[in-house]
Amino acid sequence: MKYVLVTGGVVSGLGKGVTASSIGVLLKACGLRVTSIKIDPYLNTDAGTMSPFEHGEVFVLDDGGEVDLDLGNYERFLDIKLTRDNNITTGKIYQSVIDKERKGDYLGKTVQVVPHITDAIQEWIERVAMIPVDGKEGPADVCVIELGGVIGDIESMPFIEALGQFSYRVGPGNFCLIHVSLVPVLSVVGEQKTKPTQHSVRGLRGLGLTPNILACRSTKALEENVKTKLSQFCHVPAENIVTLYDVPNIWHIPLLLKDQKAHEAILKVLNLKCVGRKPDLGEWKARTKICDVLHDTVKIAMVGKYTGLSDAYLSVLKALLHASVACHRKLIVEWVAAGDLEDSTAKEAPDVYKAAWELLKGADGILVPGGFGDRGVQGKIFAAKYARENKIPFLGICLGMQIAVIEFARSVLGLCDANSTEFDLKTSNPCVIFMPEGSKTHMGGTMRLGSRRTYFEVADCKSAKLYGNASYVDERHRHRYEVNPDMVSQLENAGLSFVGRDESGRRMEIVELPSHPYFVGVQFHPEFKSWPGKPSALFLGLIAAACGHLETVLKGGHASSLSNNGLSNGKASVKVHQNGNTMKSSNGSLNVVYSNGNGNGVHY
């Protein structure tokens, strides 16, 4: 087994996750099998109880693991399926060591950070690296490990020590360290500054790790004299210094690494030059080119409560992007804060209220993603009602599906107090209820999580056709509440159709409105299984419906034939709009222009 460690320096948010994923793509294109591990130094056992504002979205795996969003990048880029153990946290490591201590496994020894914690980290890495994740038998050839945070953080010190020991143990031909650092350009002088990277590498070497390759983030390609200076002071060969400069979308990063022969440097360090072939990224390059030149737009209104941070809905954004590229459309996402659609906002901030409704009414399609809590729920209900009454393509995910059911019960059945018991325990018409197997005392890991099977009850429905007329589908879940099965017959008699259910037939998974061009709600999260080149079926349906070409897709037509003008020259970016505020991104995402609506965007 060969290991590639990706660390970060100077500042967080440089895009280590995208870099690690891109390195995996490059090595895979060389004919190697690749697996990935993400190390998060926080004390949480997993990401499940963390607010999206704290750490971005919680990505859910097939086995029910609630993990860091970077594992979503790994799965999307590498087309692999990871496990919960591929995400290592300080909490998991300490918990495993303490459990061993309680069982007496250390035979009375004093349990310490060194060697017990560091040994546990190394054993975890070696064990997980051997788990096949690509559907083939046997372990991968290379394990790409990303260490979260920045070199010098107190919480990552045990991991740095463990990885230093690990690199020595596996030997120099089996371990490659890639350090992602920042080379800023001061606007005053316009000169690329190397001192931050020099200090970062000095700190890394002082902790027992020496970088083999430097990946430098900058606004433009590094000048040769800058490379020479970095090589001299960081003791890294100039040919092993690559630039990760700003690009229109993150699909360019593997191509950027290939053009700078990063694969040759990695294979040389790992003694794999005779094994790896010349990287074949033809399909990847073609898809990237398509994304760059798309001109015809499709506008989707995203109605949610975490609109201040795009990473809170990262997988949803990626799924929309995959579907829009498949339909040859340039994606524009209009971020609509759900609370801005509510009557209270009309009184307190009428301009904000008006702007939010203008964004919603100007969209080609409406998406209500998952979430928790009652803030903004009424605004989401208004959005679902507008989409239903005005025949606007609509996709509700998890809470979004529950919202659609509540709105239908209120507006069509006339049940004015219809609600979810999550928001109103005393409602006399509980459309959505707490699942009986859920825990009301513990939050972490107690939801209905992971891959579950949904059976189609109606073969002729839009969802089944989008899934290739399948009789069932396996999708990932993350929820505590469900549609009340005792109200299903009443809802269906009024026109709503629950076309997908679980194996028991009592848990509602997919709802459609047959009289509507595209009104679909799902209890699961289809965005977690959407890859570049393999868009999620339901997101593809939303985009195709928003473009007016759903029937072509339902009849088996290829999505790429939907563009009226084929490929046309256009601005090489995906645009994400939000009313009034420039959005924040916490993971160094490289593929989106975040805009405040006035055209002043920033490329990452």
From TrEMBL:
Residues 2-272 form the CTP synthase N-terminal domain. GO terms for biological process: 'de novo' CTP biosynthetic process; pyrimidine nucleobase biosynthetic process. It is an enzyme of class 6 (ligase). It comes from Acer negundo. InterPro entries: Class_I_gatase-like (IPR029062), CTP_synthase (IPR004468), CTP_synthase_N (IPR017456), GATASE (IPR017926), GATase1_CTP_Synthase (IPR033828), P-loop_NTPase (IPR027417). It catalyses: UTP + L-glutamine + ATP + H2O = CTP + L-glutamate + ADP + phosphate + 2 H(+). Keywords: ATP-binding, Glutamine amidotransferase, Ligase, Nucleotide-binding, Pyrimidine biosynthesis. Pathway: Pyrimidine metabolism; CTP biosynthesis via de novo pathway; CTP from UDP: step 2/2. This is CTP synthase. One of its GO terms (molecular function) is identical protein binding. Residues 310-543 form the Glutamine amidotransferase domain. The keyword Ligase applies. Catalyzes the ATP-dependent amination of UTP to CTP with either L-glutamine or ammonia as the source of nitrogen. PANTHER family: CTP SYNTHASE, CTP SYNTHASE-RELATED. PROSITE patterns: GATASE_TYPE_1.
